[in-house]
Amino acid sequence: MVSVINTVDTSHEDMIHDAQMDYYGTRLATCSSDRSVKIFDVKNGGQILVADLRGHEGPVWQVAWAHPMYGNLLASCSYDRKVIIWKEENGTWDKMYEYTGHDSSVNSVCWGPYDFGLILACGSSDGAISVLTCSGDGHWDIKKINNAHTIGCNAVSWAPAVVPGSLIEQPSGQKPNYIKRFVSGGCDNLVKLWKEEDGQWKEDQKLEAHSDWVRDVGWAPSIGLPTSTIASCSQDGRVFIWTCDDPSGNAWTAKLLHKFNDVVWHVSWSITGNILAVSGGDNKVTLWKESVDGQWACISDVNKGQGAASSITDNQQNEQ
Amino acid sequence: MAARWSSENVVVEFRDAQATAMSVDCLGQYAVLSGRRFLYVVNLETPSEAPRKISRQSKWDVGTVQWNPHRTEAHLFAASSNQRVDLYAWRNGFGEPHASLQGHTRVISDLDWSWFDPELLVTSSVDTYIYIWDTRDARKPTAALSAVAGASQVKWNKRNHYCLASSHDGDVRIWDKRKPNTAVEYVAAHLSKIHGLDWHPDNEYILATSSQDNSVRPFSNGLVTVMVPQLRRENSLLLWSTLELNSPVHAFVGHDDVVLEFQWRPQKEGSKDCQLVTWSRDQSLRIWRVDPQLQKLCCANDIVDELMEGMNLTGDTEKTLRAQDAEPPLSPGLTENSRDQFEGPGSGLTSGGRNDVSGLPQTLQQEFSLVNLQIRNVNVEMDAVNGSCFVSADCGANRVRLVVKFPAQYPNNAAPSFRFVPPTNISSSMKTKIQKILTDTSLQKVKRNQNCLEPCVRQLVSCLESDMEDGSNPYGLTNPVTPALPTFPRVTNTYGSYQDANIPFPRTSGARFCGTGSLVYFTRPMTMHRTVPTTEPTPRSLSALSAYHSGVLTPMKMRTESQSTLRLYSGSPTRTDKDQVSISSFYYKERKSRRWKGKREGSDYSNRPIKLAGKVIIQEISCLLPVHKALGETYVLNVNDIQDTCKKNGAAALAVGRRDLAKVWALASAATNLDLNPDPDPDAGTPWAKHPFGRQLLETLLEHYSQMSDVQSLAMLCSVFRGHTSPQEYTLYGHQQARPVIFTAHHSRYPSVTSCSLTSGSFSSTSDTAATPWNMVSCARETEHAPPWGESSPDDYRYANQIYTDPREREKEQHDMNKRLLDPSNAFQFDDFKKCYGEILHRWGLKEKRAEVLKFVSCPPEPHKGIEFGVYCCHCRSQARGTQCAVCKRFTFQCAICHVAVRGSSNFCLSCGHGGHTSHMMDWFRSQDVCPTGCGCHCLLQSTF
């Protein structure tokens, strides 16, 4: 049964722009126009404010938890052009690193798969994407892709470290030599795929289908199947599912999931990559699942504006 | 506080004028007042005479009126009316319209004549375009600057032919008219809408702005940023000096209502007096004399004469800086409307006055009683009743006496003001610097509602002390106007001016899958309604927000109120009662209008706090996922008894209601039956794996669960069958080398070039080519086309040097492959299933289960690399890796015993860091137990763990 297990009153003084739980699902980070980032302990249905992080000088757009292998790290990005990486040490949260290399609002942050080390991609309205890599001794190495999207970059999302289509020969018994890849979406209505080659980030693919700003992109987690999947959503109300079966990763095909009546702001994949959560300007959340014959169907409609979460799963539908 | 004395010498009332705008011509002879039905031209020499009228037929008020500032064209003036600009010529006491400029599609917000070219006029409009017109060709504008957002003000630079500035909400954009597509510079100037904008007359790089946030900011080299206290609801004009930015020099008191417009009147040569012409909503025109005494007050240094000279000669030293005050939140119908003026390099004017400090907040008294001011050379006298304190600091020869005034709202985002009083003896540049530091410090603190007295005083002292150490001549800089930099500083700390057209409109709702089985979502609260009907899409960028507001407000205002209020168009009601503009204004607005409605109905909506942040809801959605935590907990993997494992797992699946899985486990149990164990002899018959119910069945199952994304079942089946395949020679990674025979696997994804040269043997394809559709299609195809030896698994690549001479050996190996129920060519994929499932188990906190599954991964975890110790170079103390320092190129460490650089094996004490050649250390510690350097460290004891 789909059930609400917790309702967290964040007490933010202004509108919330992102909420995300950590790896284990025990802590919740939220960020808001009130310039703060808050962390709550949400174990067992409770809510304990762990930290109220102040450091941004503008609305905070997005937060991202790093893999716990690297400690308790949270990245946040803001209108103030800054990316702040927060770290918990001995129970207290502090600023670990502040990145100020962008000239405009930073709209998206995303940690790479843990196999790549501590690596963060940031997309900004100045059109650039920055990739920050922690070298281990507190020093951060910065690679900036300038003019990644003309006018501005709105979203970034890493590809899983499992790259089934790879043609690269990998001797067994050694750690596979994964290629670092991520996808980005921007104000040029494009979805772009980026690939690291010889330490340099190169544009790998340009996916065109949207007719307005791309607001979010999400690379689906892999469970080991050879198909790569990306979801993208846009101001034009469309959500596309991009798939690639080609081992060289060049042939991407788009499939329209749905055309919404208002902007679609966010897409999120479930851990097994078979359910997509879509949310947008209509203040609603819908869940989509691919049926066995490859058709996407809405399995749930969570209408938050009404305060009630009505969820229809397959089973419930039968009962009704 | 400013000295107040009335110095007006002319007051004329024009009761029926209802004029909304006024302008004084460049000769100082006429003033034009623009009413709805007539334009009145007042002769300033004889102001009490009845003014001449020019009738106009329009239902719109005049937005802005301006005389041409060029003496040759002094008879011309332009008046904007809705979307049109009318040009009038005034000759011999009669005026007539002679041209109309039409092009804007929305109301014109401002216009300005060029200072260089008498024919050029610039207009700004809500329609987001700024047009430059050549009045000789009125048909269309000669240039259009595209601003994306509507502009409220536009002004030509007075020194640069090409440069102009426009204001958009809280931002200022600087344009080069040759580059119409994009602004040259963006300045985030104010938190709220800018009402007034003006360039410095002599300096190309200085401009001043005034805003609804009650501050006036001159932007020059970034040195001066001043908050002006509350200006609302005062009917006086304030005269400011740019040298003394925290308090006005003079207040012109007399008008009974808001000052709508003011302008310096150019003087005839020889006149020492300066005159200011003001028009107020009390329908009176006043001419104020600014006598030399007052002028001197504005210009502390001896530049008065220069200034006066400049004014007399050029006649265009005056510049207008407009400020329209905000609508007070409680009286939405009433609009205060006032203008600011900025005079010369020495002084400026602001309309309005400051609110009296009323009612002292408890916090100030508390701060005074708690503050720790035991600072050297500083004495602070605090007067909590008057909300002020007197700071005296003596630092060497420098003496500073500072009066700090705390506003009533302090410390809730209201900074105190700082004023130097005699006998302060520091230079004016130093004063400016300290002023800025203090203002910045206090602003920083009060922004967080923190007290700021102590930090400010400490900043003052450290600033004075550092100045002494610098030894710089404090009297060296006498020029009050610091040299301007050629760029406009960005005020990076100022936000809230959401003009940026390329920043996406923020998400106010979102959903995210988190952990393994949770969906976290948030939406905007129910109380927040959109201002737009739901049929209209949400705007895409932040800048659209302000443009949208203007769109809603303009038509309504135009009908009901005087057009001059149109300059307020983008100020949404929320902005006046919130010091920060927020995205919530977009939604909040409707709530607000409901509040007004509610008031009429007698309910007090307004008293209820409005919640801007909704709740974050965490939903359990694991039932939608193909993986089950309960199964993760109960599944077992016992390689020694696969049969039992399958039975137990089947029971577990049944317990969670997965009947399909229960059957699968039953099948698995059957397939792994010991009776079906393959015979080691290749001649004993086809192994079970080659049976339709063998490998084929298993692959069909895997395909099915792949489609379901059921990584849990996939990983478990792969683990069980991998474990089953060769129970007797079951190997985990690491034991493989011990295997006598190496199988050849098809792994088309990893074609090996070297393997081609391996053998020439006629070796039949090992193809278990039941390449199944769920597997990579390309993989299967390649298998068919490629020569048998053209592909090999990474494993045999490793043993590629082995040449099989014995065909029986080969046959045996082939048989070995065929025995396997899991296609070895997909081993990597199976590993991915297990790793992915392992990750999910990790998130569930089932670390042991995870380890059990990961045991079956063919690719081992990365071996532990051990700990590397960093070394600091003994010569230059920089951090080094290895024996040679990258910085000084010398060897990084020396042996404590022989004092020779160590390059080979070394040992060090982890406690004191001393050490050296291993052999030396061993010799030493054979007989000693303290450090050979004599540091006293008991290295042998300290280094044991």
Explain this structure to me?
The complex is a heterodimer of chains A (320) and B (945). Chain A has one helix at 314-319; strands at 3-8, 16-21, 27-32, 36-41, 48-54, 60-65, 73-78, 83-89, 92-99, 106-111, 119-124, 129-134, 140-145, 153-158, 181-186, 190-197, 200-208, 214-219, 228-234, 238-244, 253-259, 264-269, 275-280, 284-290, 296-303. Chain A has 1 helix and 25 strands. In chain A, the strands form 6 sheets. A 4-stranded antiparallel β-sheet of chain A has the order 2-3-4-5, with no helix packed on it. Chain B has 945 residues and is of the alpha+beta class. Among the domains of chain B are: 16-233, YVTN repeat-like/Quinoprotein amine dehydrogenase (Methylamine Dehydrogenase, Chain H), CATH 2.130.10.10; 363-466, Ubiquitin Conjugating Enzyme, CATH 3.10.110.10; 627-722 and 814-855, no CATH class; 891-944. In chain B, the strands form 11 sheets. Chain B has a 6-stranded mixed β-sheet with strand order 1-23-22-29-28-27, covered by helices on one side. In chain B, strands 2-26-25-24 form a 4-stranded antiparallel β-sheet. In chain B, strands 3-4-5-6 form a 4-stranded antiparallel β-sheet, with no helix packed on it. At the A-B interface, strand 1, strand 2, strand 3, strand 22 and strand 23 of A face strand 34, strand 35, strand 36, helix 15 and helix 17 of B.
